[in-house]
Amino acid sequence: MKINSSFSALVCSLALSTLLPSACSGDSNENGDGGAGAAGDESGGTGGSGNTGGTGATGGASGGSSGATGKGGTSGTSGASGTSGAAGDGGAGASGGEGGESGGEGGESGAGGAPTCPFATDATVSGTLKITADDSYRLYLNGALIDETPRLWFAPQTYTVNVLRHPSRKNVIAVDVLNSQEAGGLDRGVIMDLSFDAGAGAQSVLTDATWKLSTTLVANWFEVAFVDLAWVAATDEGAHGIAPYGGILGTSSARWLWSYDSATVATDVKPTTEQIWVRKTFYVDASGHVGAAPTACP
């Protein structure tokens, strides 16, 4: 039955409203918040507010229907509300945690990057150098003068020296040798034995035919940077222990050197005073072995 809106308002204002709740419900829905109070769980506040039409019984029924729909909607919203928000925050936190972990891995990778050379460019290793010459010598190592005191061959000398350790650093032994008298047989020469341990056991640099020699004095001939490509190979006159010198250096595999084999030249042909300059270049690789060329480190 359709009830006039003015009449409905009059009825709802009287105590009869308690007897006709559904009729007043439609009017409350029209007023918004009133529908929510009257309908309760049956029609739902949201449904009541959602109803835009509604007078009399039609409004109430329509409000009730919307209320039922609203209740379902409210239930859905409740499920997605705070819990969904919390899940969002949690997700952000988890994502942040993963980011931190990733950063940690990056740091670890940085710390373990390309290996570095364990030797400073100016690192050295101590060695023992034994030498004598017939008749005297001036000794240099890496451009520095070690000794120039005149001596005779039967007074060999022993020095503690520093060898450059970095694999890229060149070591140069340079010796100026003077012969001041002549004699039959082997009567002039130089012999040297350098030994050291750079981590690969005992290493030696000995006088032999790989040494470079010049019979002419050249400026800066003893410097590390000097280029000795024009120099010739020294002549091997014989092994350590040969007469007349014998085992002058103790135990050694070094060889006697000169610009020619003096033992094979007649005494009257050999000059009384004669001088030579000899050089030896070597490197120490990363493992501690002696080499003829620079190597990478490591």
How would you describe what is shown here?
The protein is of the alpha+beta class and 298 residues long. It has two domains: 5-80, no CATH class; 124-291, Galactose-binding domain-like (Jelly Rolls), CATH 2.60.120. Helix content is 31%, strand content 27%. The chain contains six helices and 13 strands. The chain has helices at 5-13, 21-30, 33-43, 45-50, 56-80, 82-111, and strands at 124-134, 136-141, 144-147, 157-164, 171-179, 189-197, 202-206, 212-214, 232-233, 235-239, 255-258, 274-284, 290-291. Helix 1 (5-13) crosses helix 2 and helix 2 crosses helix 5 (56-80). The chain is elongated and about 70 Å long. The chain starts with a helix and ends in a 7-residue tail after the last strand.
- Structure annotation, total helices: 6
Nearest-integer average pLDDT: 74
- Give the domain tally: 2
Structural class assignment = alpha+beta
Order of helices and strands: HHHHHHEEEEEEEEEEEEE
β content, as a range?
25-35%
CATH architecture label of the largest domain: Sandwich
For the secondary structure, the number of strands is 13
In the predicted model, the low-confidence regions spanning at least 5 consecutive residues are 1-111
Structural shape: elongated
> Cα-atom Rg, whole angstroms?
53 Å
**Assembly level:** single chain
The CATH topology of the largest domain is Jelly Rolls
Query: What is the straight-line distance between the termini?
Result: 102 Å
| CATH homology superfamily of the largest domain | Galactose-binding domain-like
Percent helix range: 25-40%
